[in-house]
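Suppose a colleague, Dr. K., hands you the sequence of a protein chain of 194 amino acids and asks what its three-dimensional shape might be. Before reaching for any lab equipment, you can write down a predicted structure in token form. Begin with the sequence itself:
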Amino acid sequence: MFHSNKPRIPDLRADYAQHADLCDVFGKDTKPLYLLAFLLTANHKESEQCFVSTVEDIFKEPTVFKEWARSWVKRRLIENAIGIVSPASARNGQKRDLWCAAKRETQGEYEIDTVTKLAALERFVFVMSILERYSNWDCALLLGCGMNKVVQARMRALRRLADLAALFPRGDRLPTPRLGVTPNDHPHSQEAVY
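The predicted structure, expressed as tokens, is then:
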């Protein structure tokens, strides 16, 4: 009988991800997710175990917003890798696999194998903070160590990667014109090797 002049407030109900939404993430991102697991574990058997554990986690009734499904899957994969490898305990005797057992043909395969040569904590910190852009706080929280240890591990990882990268042949160097510099414009054009 009486009509309110107040605008109706929409129903602000959150949309939660269903099993199908989370499975869809695996369907679309199978290769990148497996690569993430391999970079963290540096071992095919452990990366498969990590991947399968993450798939199993989908069916344990996770409560996650639909928009966060991809982030949730990646975080669970990282948490499972941490549980398998336990990088904070610095298990250096871990068996490391090559990404591809056959002859490496692409620069990407060299880069993957270079990352897997890092010690466990350095590798986890590098992948989480540099590749996945986790904050120092998140890395420290997930890895169960202090932020100082995370910062030091990242610095060691970057130094070690720079040293290791110098050992591998680079077949994909950018030609000088793509860099916007011609050989004559380069200040050390006689010494530079492109």
